Model the fold of this input.
Amino acid sequence: MATLPDFEAWAVFAKVVETGSFSGAARALNLSQATVSKAVSRLEARMQTTLFQRTSRKLMLTESGQAVQAYAQQLLADGEALEAQLRDEVDQFRGKIRFAVPMSFGLREIAPLLPEFCRRYPHIELDLHLADEQVDLIGDRFDFALRIARLEDSSFLAKRLCQVALLAVAAPDYIERHGRPAHPKALNPDTALVYTNAKNAHSWTFRHSTHGEFTQVVRPKIQANSADVFLPALLAGQGMTIIPEFLVCDALRNGQLCTLLDDWRIEPLSLYLLAPPNPLRPKRVQALMDFLEQALRQTSWAQPSN
Done:
């Protein structure tokens, strides 16, 4: 069975050659002299040859040692260069960041933030993936993701940034024609606009401090995997829906839409920042994560996490 070369021992050998002694290599590598000696002996046993002639006063390369000296020194130099390059990349604000964000949220909330980040960090490249479906963070090599969900359990590092309110909304024209319901059972289920990526998409659950919980089953007039599809129909008075507040906050402020069932509560979602479980990450990635966290916590629709 093939085995890997003993890279550590070859690097120690190269350092002995460079310093001219076992003790010098031990000081340079911050190792004990015994550890250095064992590494060289390990190589000699593996190669079945002697690499150094040792006397009480002098250390000389054998013919075999001279034959591999240049290769070992190149191996050590390449290893040191590799580590230096990686340290430089990790410590500097340069390189690519690959991250995933829900489609509508990314277009409305994340895209407007990116020019400022690019201004602050001109040497960072951003690779943004927009999709409402959950992505494979590790398999697809994402540095992190933003996710709007009710996250019950996760093997990833998960930081909840804020709560995202879900609102039942319709246009004033819709309310004028269908009435303003006082109870979820009074909703017109045939005019629902249904977001299909939601859990239990066709069953809308409301909670009331006095009346308890009620679930209304709806039959979609329009269903889609992107809630942006519903906005024209909503504004035209052609349906009602449950939708995240950030998508309709402007339309609510200017009176184009109204909330329904204000005495009833819909369990909110949370905005999470998810990253692979390794807590060590390049500075460029941490910079973007910190930037987005600070900006998103300050938005008008963000509700503090409990």
Remarks:
- The radius of gyration is 31 Å.
